[in-house]
Amino acid sequence: MFKNNALKLMAILFLIAALSIFIFVTRHTQYHYHSVYREFYFVPLILAAFWFGLRGTLLAAGVITLFYLAFIGFFWQGLSVEKINTFIEIIFLNVVALILGILREREYREHRRTQKMEHLAVIGKTVSGIAHDMKIPLVAIAGFSRRILKKLGEDDPHREKLTIIYQEAQRLENMVRDMLDYARPLNLYRSREDVNQIIQESINIVKEVAGKKQITIKEKLFPEMPPAELDPMRIKQVFINLLTNAIQASPFGEPVLVRSSVKGEKIVIDVTDHGRGLTADQKENIFTPFFTTKKEGVGLGLTMVKNIVSAHGGEVQFFDNPPPETGVTFRVILPKDSRVLSPSIKK
């Protein structure tokens, strides 16, 4: 790959150098030839856009511009119509380079997005089939091990091993359920709900997990929160997931903050941790299915969060906490009315 890119770069520079030599060796009085030669600069410019995108196009345009300026300075005999035309050509060439680069970058991103969607569709079908095949034996293992555990005495030497089997079977069941939820169509059962109440119910569910790390969950909930049209079970799934992630990301004893507010026709919920933050790779792939840095889980939690919120006509954002604080804030934006789609709300 590197060798191939190096050859392409050499080809572009060779074309620019060859054209520049032609122009330099041609007498400056034969300006009509110079105009023809300069038109050929668009060839390496187009190649740079096609091969290297915006950066390559701007680099090629920069090199050509330097030659233009050197040529003008070398043959400078005062300002003339030809010199003015040359300056206009420089500006025009750089504008074209910028447009070509932007269009190529947009095409490249769209191509990557299409490939990614096709790839995820194949993964989804595969995962759904595997999850269905795994579900029945896992339910049987968990069920039988639970029954046997009830019959074993507290001092039985096999109890500890059987407990591990039961817990691991439950963990795998949860992973299978996540995979099936991802593969199934997302159906919502909306009703008029109090978002603050759903937040508090979600906090109560994760309090035990937070207690193990001596983490307190602080609430700053908008007191006059209007009811919203949403699926309470699905939205609770969103908050539980974000709270659990915040607890896992936070250092021992650090608080997690949950805030709710109203901005126009939107309800905004922030979940803030004080962990190490996210790397560039994590930020880029944060909502990508099956992307995870954890030892447990399959990397579908935040994917489901985004899917659920998007199905409600909302969006999920995340950003680094302002210095000197560390950590990340995840923001959930929901419309009060299910018929209202959510534009971006800046932090």
Question: How would you characterize this protein structure?
Answer:
This protein has 347 residues and is of the alpha+beta class. Helices cover 62% and strands 11% of the residues. The strands form two sheets. The protein has a five-stranded mixed beta sheet with strand order 2-4-5-7-6, covered by helices on one side. The chain has a two-stranded antiparallel ribbon with strand order 1-3. A hairpin with a 2-residue loop joins β4 and β5 (266-272). The longest helix is centred in the middle third of the chain and has 71 residues, at 81-151. It is elongated and about 100 Å long. The model is unreliable at 339-347 (pLDDT under 50).
Strand order of the largest sheet: 2-4-5-7-6
| Residues in helix, % | 55-70%
| C-alpha termini separation | 40 Å
Query: Residue ranges: pLDDT <50 for 5 or more in a row?
Result: 339-347
Determine the number of helices (DSSP H or I, runs of at least 4 residues).
Answer: 9
What attributes characterize this protein structure?
9 helices; two-stranded antiparallel sheet; elongated; Heat Shock Protein 90; 347 residues; 5-stranded mixed beta sheet; alpha+beta
Short structural summary:
Helices cover 62% and strands 11% of the residues. It is α+β, with helices and mostly antiparallel strands and 347 residues long.
Task: Lay out the secondary structure.
Blueprint: H1 2-25, H2 31-39, H3 42-74, H4 81-151, H5 159-183, E1 191-193, H6 195-212, E2 217-220, E3 228-230, H7 232-249, E4 256-263, E5 266-272, H8 280-285, H9 301-311, E6 315-320, E7 328-335
Parallel strand pairs: 2-4
Antiparallel strand pairs: 1-3, 4-5, 5-7, 6-7
